[in-house]
Design a protein that fits this description.
5-stranded antiparallel beta sheet, 7 strands, two-stranded antiparallel sheet, alpha+beta, 2 domains, 7 helices, HIT family, subunit A
């Protein structure tokens, strides 16, 4: 949930301080990410890996956009942009070199399909596509490989993420999942 307040409302809510001319944009849902909630407790599949748990959920509850035979596409719970999805193999594997040829092909095909769906659903102008291998490379869940597909639009970076370190997303994740699922290309 995003809560926007004027500076005066913010000061009253906090109960202290002097007005400083800044508005406040509160994103309390981000605290779960900051605290590391729902992160695996270890490297094994049974150590609370969300990518191992998500496939047992309904598409709506798991934010799954598409299921394949060896991999699936899921919305990122903490997206960089609206429509930020990940192609994830079902098998709990950490390193790209550990994927089978079939898994590699399906992750690649789902990535291509995600790009097609994002162009159709939201008119994406471009994409950032990639995977972070290992915690030192920035992988939030290093034990289970996942490839990011982040849609981009001209001018989508403004003062909010650059200065305010806050991203404003125009659509709820459930609505984004439904829109992308409906725009997914036919097999």
């Amino acid at each position: 949930m995003l809560i926007s307040m004027t500076n005066e409302e913010s000061v009253l809510q906090e109960g202290a301080g002097e007005p400083d001319g800044f508005g406040r944009l509160w994103t309390p849902h981000r605290m779960a990410y900051i605290k590391g909630e729902n992160k695996p407790t270890g490297p094994a599949a049974g150590d609370g890996c969300p990518f191992c748990t998500i496939p047992s959920m309904s598409d709506e509850d798991g934010l799954i956009v598409r299921r394949g035979e060896h991999a699936f596409v899921v919305l990122n719970l903490y997206p960089y942009n609206s429509g930020h999805v990940m192609a994830v193999p079902y098998r709990h594997v950490a390193d790209y070199t550990e994927l089978t040829a079939v898994e590699t092909a399906e992750v690649a095909e789902l990535t291509k399909q995600a790009m097609t769906a994002l162009r159709a659903a939201s008119g994406a102008h471009g994409f950032n596509i990639g995977m972070n291998q290992g915690a030192v490379a920035g992988a939030g869940i290093a034990a289970h490989l996942h490839q990011h597909v982040v849609p981009r639009w001209g001018g989508d970076t403004n003062f909010m993420p650059v200065v305010g370190r806050t991203k404003v997303l125009p659509q709820l994740l459930a609505d984004t999942r439904k829109t992308l699922a409906e725009a997914w290309p036919e097999d």
